Amino acid sequence: MEELSKIEFLSEKNESLKNVIITSIIEGNDKEAINQKINTEYDKIISEIKENSNIQIITKNRKKEDIIIIVEELILDHIEQSNLRRIESLEQKLINNLDENSYSELIKLKSQLNRE
């Protein structure tokens, strides 16, 4: 859940869906209740995901453990891409205005990516 909460979606409706899932888990709702809430409130998004997602093909005929590994890899990749975008933004900021705080944040992000 910690990894899920770190993901930032560009689309407001996707971000909203993520927040509903996290809130439902925190509230202790079971899987069936969460699915019902999502299917009721976000049926259009779910349909779009099913239509436009390669994940259906990737997960077909796979064991649950394999699917979990794939999802974890996707989450890590998404986090890495987000960090790279932040680094690019900070580098641009430094080019425009040399600021010690921005430089420190940039160094911190780069060292974090190197550890991963």
Keyphrases for this structure?
2 domains; mainly alpha; 116 residues
Short description:
The protein has 116 residues and is mostly helical. The chain has helices at residues 2-6, 12-26, 31-41, 43-52, 55-59, 64-96, 100-115.
Write down how many β-strands occur, each being a DSSP E stretch of 2 or more residues. Answer: 0
- Helical segment count: 7
Order of helical and strand elements? HHHHHHH
The rounded Rg comes to: 18 Å
Compute the number of structural domains.
2
The share of residues in helices is over 70%
Overall mean confidence score, pLDDT: 83
Biggest beta sheet attributes:
none
- The helix-and-strand class reads mainly alpha
Write the layout of secondary structure elements.
Blueprint: H1 2-6, H2 12-26, H3 31-41, H4 43-52, H5 55-59, H6 64-96, H7 100-115
Describe this structure in words.
By secondary structure, this protein is mainly α. The protein has two domains: 1-53, no CATH class; 61-116. The chain contains seven helices and no strands. The protein has helices at residues 2-6, 12-26, 31-41, 43-52, 55-59, 64-96, 100-115. It is elongated, with a radius of gyration of 18 Å.
